[in-house]
Amino acid sequence: MGKVLQHPITIILFTLLCGVLVISLRKSSQKKSLSSQEISTLEEKAYALSQEVQGLQEEVERSKSLEYKEKIIRNELLMQKEGEYVVQLALPPEQNNFESNNSLKKPASYREEWIEILF
Question: What's the rounded Cα separation, in Å, for the pair 37 and 31?
Fold first, then answer.
C-alpha cells in the first residue's frame, strides 16, 4: 500500500485531482459573487420601482380629491364658476426670435437694403 502512494502516477493523479477541485471551487466562488452583485442590483431596482409605484399611488389618491379636479377643470378646460370671469393674457412676442429672423434676411449690398426699405 505504501508503494502505491509513492508511485509517480499516483502522485500526478492526486495533484491533478486537487487542481481540478481548486479550479472548481474558484469558479463557484466567482459565480456566487456575481450572483450576489446581481441580486443587490435587482434589489436596488425593485426598491426604486416600489418608490415609483408608491409615488404614483399617492398621485392617484390626490387626483381623486375635489381640489385636484377643480384645478384641472379651471386650468386645463378653462371653465369657471358662476359669476367668475376668466382673463387670458397674451404672451409678449419674443425679441430674440424677431432678431434671428432679421439676421437671416440681411441683404448683401446697400442698394438691396434701399430697395427693401422702399418697396
Answer: 10
Model pLDDT, residue 99: 52
Pick the residue with more confidence: 86 or 47?
47
pLDDT class for 48, splitting at 50, 70, 90? very high
* Range from 4-13, 15-24, 57-66, 93-102 carrying the lowest mean pLDDT: 93-102
The Cα 60–Cα 6 span in angstroms is: 78
Q: Identify the residue whose cell numbers are 415609483.
A: 52
Are the beta carbons of 85 and 76 closer than 8 angstroms? no
Q: Is the pTM of this model over 0.85?
A: no
Q: How far apart are CA 52 and CA 95, in angstroms?
A: 41
Give the CA-trace dihedral at 95, 101, 105, 106, to 10 degrees: 40
Residues counted in the chain = 119
Residues with Cβ within 8 Å of 61's Cβ and at least 6 positions away in sequence, in order, are none
Residue entry with cell 442698394:
111
